[in-house]
Amino acid sequence: MCGINGILHLQLQKKVDERVLTKMRDSLEHRGPDDKGLFIENNIGFGHRRLSILDISLAGHQPFLSEDGRYVLVYNGEIYNFKEFYPELKSNGFDIRTSSDTEVLMKLFQLHGLKMLNRLNGMFAFAIWDKMEKKLTVVRDRMGVKPLYYSFYNETFYFASEQKALFTAGVPLKMAQDGLEEYIFNRFVAGENTLYQNVKKVLPGHIMTIHESGKTTTEKWWNLKKEIQNQPEIKNPVEWFRETFDDSIKLRMVSDVPVGVLLSGGLDSSSVLASLHHQKYKSIETFNIGFKEKEHNEAHLAKILANKFDYGFHTMQLEGENLFDKLLTSTYFQDEPIMHLSEPHLLAVSQMAKPSVKVLLSGEGADELMGGYVRYKALQYPSLLNSIATIGNLDVFTKQPRYEKLTRYAQIIKKSDLIIYNGSNIYPNDIAETFGINTPPTNEYRKQIYKEAKSLYPDNLRRQALYFDQHTYLCSLLDRNDRCTMGASIECREPFLDPRLIVGLGSLEDKWLFAGKKWKFILKSSMQERLPEEILKFKKVGLSAPWGDYITKSPAFKEELESFSKSDLFQIPYFEHINIQKLIQNLQKGDTRMTPYIMPLFMMHIWMKTYATKF
Prior knowledge:
The chain has 28 helices and 17 strands. By secondary structure, the chain is an alpha+beta fold.
């Protein structure tokens, strides 16, 4: 919906500089090109950029002030069930003057305070300033669909939807050593920390309160473990899933602007489209990214489905100069080195969709909720991993990428590490051997989530991995989705992340997730009559791309690869033992096993060269 940011000086006599706040706000113009607003009162300032989706009139302008003048709100996201609250608000004497969810959020806060949060079905990050009590309250949604970053710097609290707004305000851009370690070992920084010193995230499902005196408190308003433990037994899981999923889709179609679908051709996004068709939604446009390499391509399936349902279909491929340009742009929007390696593609498909729609539905979250990744299968029989570790040098294991990765994974001894590194592409032993880095990160947040997962699902590594990923890996995917779609001024919505589905699925027996050849059993069972066989049975591809080939064979990358081999990155003490020339030479000779080692370093090189020099 927008970009939000703000400044709270903890020195009462210090006034907010309008120029600084304006620069912060306008660094996020891509998140909200339709409207902009400022609120400044002495030592507090709010900035807002708006992408108009609900009530596109000026009535939805932000910062939004309560009618009594006590509260000021900046808000990013959507409350999908906002109209449900109309009768209650009216019966309590509130007039509804707009058709925006922003007004409902403000009035629910006036009526109930933060107790209203559990009743909201939506994605949101918001900040409310209470003029009477002189305190700022910032809140983030359950799963962290909407981003919220902050920094305490020079006796001032800054917050924003993206880190670049903080750097624009003067917060120094400095890499944090523990953030760098997590990036190498775990692919991304989990929890409240980021790649940067002095920049943190408000955790999903958390509230942070900052008083003018500087006193700060943080509390958790949504606890997935407790929600799962308190979930009543679901009597007919398939029927429950189908009905709840359809209702989630219906809620996420609430919009005053056109809504489209990111359609890969895989089971998850196809299920979203099938639900729309089942509920008789007309004139839906679908958007797809294709690959010329057959093993990476699902575009033909996406096209079959869109045609079957009589929906519009748009596809594109991203190669050469175009790919290189989108890599640079997506690195800017991401604020960190890209790590999923699909960011340029997602940005490109979002930009293709922009002339037609302002909102896109995505299938994100299904894999982490229902066991959709092949990497979870390694956790089914942990004892087998020990056997694989001992026979891992056999040709059959070293020549096939998936088996080669499994033999490296099998070297991990501790069960906690099997979970913590399940989403990694290279593991501690690999990093020690190839990079000369022998000390893994402390991973305190990951260890805390693992402990929660273990207490909720004792002796069940697969379920522990799902719960763990819902608090870590999924957060990084949602951040990617938000940055890439918002980079094109489009809002992304994830129907699988309805709180009813997250909690309900977490309470089901294993058989509803892990039965069948490819798992996600409940989703396949629910969609059996809605989807064609070729989609139900197709081998999972995901949004993957042959980056090893791109960077060694594409003329657009040739010069950059040469620059990378001499990058300043390898002057950083942490990377001083890496023989990057040798790694690149092996990749150029066709050794694809080098790709997972080279790509995080290559993407960090791109980030250092094009992003870190901007501030």
